[in-house]
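U., I forgot to send this yesterday:
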Amino acid sequence: MTEIESLKPTIIAVSGLSSNTGKTTLVCDLLERLPGWEAVKLTRGHYRSCGKDPHGCCVSDLIRDEPLIRSGRAENYEAGKDTGRFWDAGAANVHWVIAGEDQVEDGIRQALSRVQSAGVIVEGNSFLDFVEADFAITCARAGENRMKTSARRTLAKADAIYLSTIDAYDAATARARFDEWRGGLSIDIDLNGKPLFTIEDLPRLIECIRELHETPCFSSVFSVSPW
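Result:
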């Protein structure tokens, strides 16, 4: 590893197969176990282009001609909100990117340029179209997932699948329910042998992230079967 490479933070991506898959909860779980790491929250918005009242969209009034990045506790801490949860989980810094549809790449690159820690966890789907993560995790529900339009593209870039605990199943039941849901799809989603994890596997996932710079994680750290 060169000196320049060693200065770059390890980027862990957390995306979702659909909405409400526990992305924020997983980011918090990771931050609690990775002291000193930072977090980036990506929020895409639009101004009137969706046809809705701009004041009815949570970030419509924040959309500008350039992406807006709010860094630091004073700029983005609010109890109960995603960024507030990141701080409460122990993030060294949190960067909130509010970007229009055509501003995502610029916004995420600006946010990453502000990261000063050894690693950063980025929550959001679309940034993977522009930035290659060192390790990408796609969250899914154990039960039914109402897949986003971009879900298959995001899944293709994932290194692992994480079944959230939203459905309160144990690991075996979660995997079985996920398989059942996949079996009912008209077009199957190809996991290409990607490992599938639950909260029970979190310690080994953390171990993999910690050793990411030194070892090929899944060949040396993990002994968990994908299914």
